[in-house]
Amino acid sequence: MDIKTAIALRKEEIESELRKSFEIVGQQRLRKAMEHLPSAGGKRLRPALAMISADAVKKGEGKRALPFGIALEIIHNFTLVHDDIMDRDELRRGVKTVHVVFDEAMAINAGDAMFALAFNILSRIDVSDDVLRDILEDVSSMVLGIAEGQQMDMDFEERMDISPEEYLEMIEKKTALMFINAAKNGARIAGAPPEIYEKMAEYGKYMGLAFQIWDDYLDLRADEETLGKPVGSDIRNGKKTLMVLYAINRLEGEDKERFLSILGNESASEEEVKEAIALMEKVGAIEDAENLALEYAEKAKNALNVLEDGEEKEALLDLVDYVIRRNK
Questions:
Q1: How far apart are CA 148 and CA 71, in angstroms?
Q2: Quick check: helix, strand or coil at residue 110?
Q3: Domain span including residue 93
Q4: Does a structural domain hold residue 246?
Q5: CA-CA distance, 301 to 317, in Å (whole number)?
Q6: 327 domain residue, yes or no
Q7: Residue 70: which CATH number?
Q8: Which are the contacts of 145, defined by CB distance < 8 A and separation ≥ 6?
Q9: Structural domain contains residue 328
Q10: Residue 159 CA: distances (Å) to CA of 96, 99, 156
Q11: What's the CA angle centered on 34, arms 7 and 124, to 5 degrees?
């Protein structure tokens, strides 16, 4: 089974459960702010991954993993609401961001409420107390790790001496941790033993690393209409992506000076952004980052060798290919 089919089979149930999850919020304006970004759509990779991972361990267990997946999706959206404020982004998924539609203070409050809602949902997962305690510990550690990764990302804006290894640590915290949790605990909810759910965590790690590198790649390669936000925004915001770090380390003389003059310039023109991208291409920065994403994708696939063959395993393998071949 390909991943699009696997997600499509679960999409209606995911969307329905996601909508229902906000019904607990009585304050209507706050609820609208909380629902704004999730209702704008999204790939729903995290809840789908949790469900598929559970079904890959034991057919039919995906439904039991759905609330866990919904909690992850809400946490994911909560981080995006706050990221958009910090990055001053005005578009997300083709619609105006929460802080633009409502205001910054309300967007912060909505994000906080989404975070609380996620843990409310997590507390009611249908598993034993011991497993629930471990899952809550995993998710709380994940959120802390995401915050650490976000802080590293922000600190990188003020530094020029960042190593590729630091960047990879940052994206493992900021992005891969959520995929690790979705795959690992989706499997665990289905009753997987440690030798399986730890391999599922490894799968999530390498897929997440590939996902973020590809996400950075799309910021340079996709068109604005498809991507749902301005192309090259990472360059204007001074983001030290892997491609940018490669470029800083490899460019010399006037080329390096020109690249650094564009990087972090919020008022950089479209032509200047294109010039910066051309300089990155000149030293192979974009190609090498793409190749590393492909290498991580292969490692993610290899981790799935612990699973028995079946439709869900095929979907998980196809998900890796989807992550590194998507255009938005």
A1: 20
A2: helix
A3: 3-321
A4: yes
A5: 6
A6: no
A7: 1.10.600.10
A8: 173, 174, 177
A9: no
A10: 30, 28, 5
A11: 65
Cβ–Cβ < 8 Å for 177, 146? yes
pTM of the model: 0.86
Tokens coding 28: 């209507």
Model confidence pLDDT, tens digit, residues 212-270: 999 888 888 755 555 455 667 889 988 889 999 999 999 999 999 999 999 999 999 98
SS3 of 25, please?
coil
45: CB partners within 8 A, 6+ apart: 7, 179, 182, 319, 323
pLDDT per position as a tens digit, 87-119: 888 899 889 999 999 999 999 999 999 999 999
The token pair that represents 248 in the structure block: 């800083």
Instruction: Determine the length of the chain.
Output: 328
> What are 116's two structure tokens?
């609380």
Cα angle 328, 82, 228 (rounded to 5 degrees) comes to 20
Number of structural domains found in the chain: 1
Burial 230-265 (b: 16+ CB within 10 A, else e): ebbbbbbbbbbbbbbbbbbebbeeeebeebbebbbb
**Helix or strand (DSSP H, E) at 151:** helix 129-156
Largest CA-CA distance found in the chain, in angstroms, rounded: 62
Look at residue 30 and tell me if it is in a domain: yes
Would you report the helix, strand and coil content of the chain in percent, each value rounded to 5? 75, 0, 20
Element housing 174 (H / E): none
